[in-house]
Amino acid sequence: MQALELLAPAKDKAVGIAAIDCGADAVYIAGPSFGNRKAAGNSLEDISELCAYAHRFGARIFLTVNTVVYDDEWDEVHSLMLGAQEAGVDAFIFREERLLTFSDIVRPMHASTQCAIRDVERARHFEELGCARIILERGLSLQQVREICAAVSCEVEFFVHGALCVCYSGDCRLSEYLDGRSADRGDCIQACRSLYDLVDAGGRVLAKDKALLSLRDFKLLHRLGDLARAGVCSFKIEGRLKNASYVKNVVREYSLALDELVAREPGRYRRASFGKVTGGFVPDSDKTFNRGYTQWWLDAEKGKWSSMDAPKAMGEWIGEVAAVRPAGDGSLRVSVRASKPGLRLANGDGFAFTVGSAIRGFRADRCEGLDIICKKVDGLKPGARIYRNINAAFERELEANAPKRELAVALYINIGEEIVVDALSEDGRRLSARFPFGEQSAQNRERAEAMLREQLSKRSGIYIFTVAGVSADGDLPHLGAAAINSMRREIAARLDEMPLAAERPARRVPDASQIRPQPASESELMRTRYCIKYELGLCPRWQGAAPTGPLFLVNNGRRLPLGFDCGRCEMTVLRPL
Q1: What is the predicted pLDDT for the residue at 488?
Q2: pTM of the shown model
Q3: At 113, is the secondary structure helix, strand, or coil?
Q4: Helices in 370-444 by DSSP H: which ranges?
Q5: What is the dihedral of CA 17, 21, 27, 30, to 10 degrees?
Q6: Which pLDDT score is estimated for 502?
Q7: What separation, in Å, do the N-terminal and C-terminal C-alpha atoms of the chain show?
Q8: Residue 214 near residue 311, CB atoms below 8 Å
Q9: Per-residue model confidence (pLDDT) at position 232
Q10: What is the SS3 assignment for 40?
Q11: Whole-angstrom Cα distance, residue 415 to residue 456?
Q12: Which of 572, 561, 536 is nearest to 208 (CA)?
């Protein structure tokens, strides 16, 4: 049976715990350094606490060590990995192949998406190096994913949600070229979200002040079954810089989708961790940060992938501005013509609209029906399309109405001279607890058994207890509710002392001769499936457009040549000569 894993991001321990509570089977997080997100480092003490929490549910913690490592940093990164291993991490996500040669690192190694795995040859290379898992490039078709999964026996992980880098993963030097801050060191300036002009060789401006390299966000919520059948076992959510509300909302939505997939084919799939998540908010990823959504190249079809007019989160479209008028004290009353019936606005909601290529936002001081009372907002006029990018009521619901994750435990009770309770948890832990019979026998056997079943079949800590059977050689004891509750709490405490043993297969350490890092191109700053020509209707191959001649991106006086590999349907941003 194939275990399906929902892998969630965490910028810190609190977000990681929230992700597990919402249904994540695993969490990836950075340690103090080398995690490829400068703003998301964590102490090993916090990592240890997160591991302990996750392991209660059989969930796993993966530590990212996926930056480029400089020659004088090998002792430091080695020490970090040893410390994280001691703290309880279950695997490392790496970029530098040389990390695989540390023989005292015994946890499984996962080849990061930064390793540029986008074909069978590259996938087999990392399997031959002893990797337990490979993480594929996002810009692959389902057929390519299927071919890679069929060609290797190691686990395969694939992104299913979140922000998209426009370039192939691990192959972008644009940030470093423009600002000296390297994406390979976790210090990307997100140059792909900046505004550019597109000009031809004669200086004619074809597009002005557009985020020409900015893509919509990835969303494959309804394609999990396709990916699972292709051989993917881990479904990854992007977002190690995202806040807790984003992670909780997206994790809960995808966890429910995976549960539905498992329920449709129970003999084929199971979840990779344990515990049932119940209650809480109703998730909706449309209500959280996004730039609009795309399925990218999954169906091997060209599409409109750009968010060039809205590189930041616009939120959900709620309608058009019907009127703008003064509301006193320098405030405005903005009336909204709703895009759908039943729209409800709340005090503190955040809104966005565009003026030309600029995105402008504002917050509601208060809302009265479909009227927004806010401070003065320049450029807001009747007819403007308005979006809600902060849903205050939904954010409060996320914060106040958290789901609960609990483990099922079956209890088998055998009563003789003493009470023996055998407990079997859903993750396979077993224990036998013995309790004294008590001072007297019950006068009403049926009522005594009902009391025993009722008081033991309750929640305690993270456990949901169910009495699966009661057998007795003679009388049943007369026990009050307090005594039975004490028995239940003792069983829960003893289960807590029996953490689930993680399955950690031995790691094969490759020979140094097998290491062959992929060289970076000297001329290319990035390579991508995305094509500005196609996005603007200028593609001669697919749209029959006239030749444009050489094209350039211009930003703050810098002029970046574009290359078009039409045979492979790829675009490059080139280093100026």
Answers
A1: 96
A2: 0.94
A3: helix
A4: 392-400
A5: -20
A6: 65
A7: 55
A8: yes
A9: 98
A10: coil
A11: 15
A12: 536
Contact partners, residue 551, CB within 8 Å, separation at least 6: 198, 199, 200, 201, 206, 532, 533, 561, 562
> What averages of pLDDT result for each successive group of 10 residues across the chain (577 residues)?
96 97 98 80 95 95 94 95 96 95 95 95 96 96 98 98 92 88 84 94 94 95 98 96 95 98 94 96 92 93 87 86 91 94 94 85 95 93 93 94 97 93 95 89 87 94 95 87 94 90 77 79 90 94 93 93 93 93
Tokens coding 382: 């009747």
Give the position of tokens 């966000």.
Answer: 217
Tokens 């089977």 found at:
25
Helix (H, G, I), strand (E, B) or coil at 492: helix
Q: What is the DSSP letter of 544?
A: -
- Specify whether the CB–CB gap between 176 and 183 falls below 8 A: yes
C-beta of residue 411 within 8 angstroms of C-beta of residue 383? no
Location of structure tokens 């810009």: 139
**Structural domains for the chain:** 2-171+218-274 (3.20.20.60), 314-400 (2.40.10), 404-496 (no CATH)
Q: Which residue, among 310, 125, 149, has the nearest Cα to 217 in the 3D structure?
A: 310
pLDDT of residue 310: 75
Phi, psi of 539 (to 5 degrees): -80, 120
Query: Taken in order 62, 67, 70, 71, is the CA torsion positive or negative?
Result: positive
Tell how far CA 510 is from the center of its chain: 30
What CA–CA distance (Å, rounded) separates 166 from 196?
Answer: 15
Counted residue by residue, the chain has a size of 577
CA pair distance 217, 236, nearest whole angstrom: 14
Nearest CA to 16 out of 560, 128, 8 is that of 8
Q: What are phi and psi of 371, to 5 degrees?
A: -105, 135
Structure-token pair, residue 257: 């989708």
